[in-house]
Amino acid sequence: METNTNSAVNVDRISALPPLILHRILSFLSLEEVVPTSVLSKTWRQLCIYNVPQIVFYLKSLHVLDLGSCKLEPPRRTVTLSSLRRLCLSFVYVEDEVIRDMVAGCPLIEYMNIDNCRGFKSLELVGLHKLKEIKLYSHQTGLEQLYISGVNVHSVGITILNTLCEINVAPCKNLTLL
């Protein structure tokens, strides 16, 4: 008797779809539904790691956002992270317009940590009245300009290696640690 080794149980046709279609499928899921898909297969894990779902930009009740080893695509509409207090990005690819839109959509942010992120050349932190502490570590990332203006900023930690970068923190009148 012959055994069929290509049974329906062993075939994963969804993971064989092109990445564009898989991203479209993920876009219909909530963040809580997306995270468990990363255990389904290597294909789904790579999709979840490298491309953050758009829903992340619109989670109004989110207080902490800690992203690592991923890519942030431009948001489709105005970012509304209206409750976000802490933003930590590590090894994230993010372009100038995306980081600008994220910052603009986080009016209550108090703490930012940006660690070895790539893709953006300018970082302007303006209009963040609750911002107190910023940490930036950059190693050959192409950052050319950093401008921080915040009345409540008291601590700024900057480590930029192998890159010439214009840094302006003069508007931070309450700065106690640089």
UniProtKB/TrEMBL annotation:
This is F-box domain-containing protein. Gene3D superfamilies: 1.20.1280.50, Ribonuclease Inhibitor. InterPro entries: At1g61320/At1g61330-like, F-box_dom, LRR_dom_sf, LRR_FXL15/At3g58940/PEG3-like. Pfam families: LRR_At5g56370. Residues 11-47 form the F-box domain. It comes from Citrus sinensis (Sweet orange).
